[in-house]
Amino acid sequence: MNAGAFGISPRQTRILERFDRLAAAPPQSLVVEGGRADERLAAALFFAARLNCARPDAPCGECPACVQIRARVHLDLILLDGLAGTIKVDDVREVRQKAGEPPRGEGYRAVILAEAQSLSIEAANSLLKTLEDPRPGHCFMLLAPQRERLFPTLVSRSFVLTLAWPDPEEPAVPRELGDEDPAQWADALAAFYRTGRGWFARTSAKGRVTRLLADHILLACSRALSEALSGRPVSGLGRYLAELPDPGGVRFFDVLLAECQEALVTQVNPSLVLEWLGTRMYARTAR
Question: Please, what are the domains in the chain?
Answer without folding.
Answer: 4-162 (3.40.50.300), 175-285 (1.20.272)
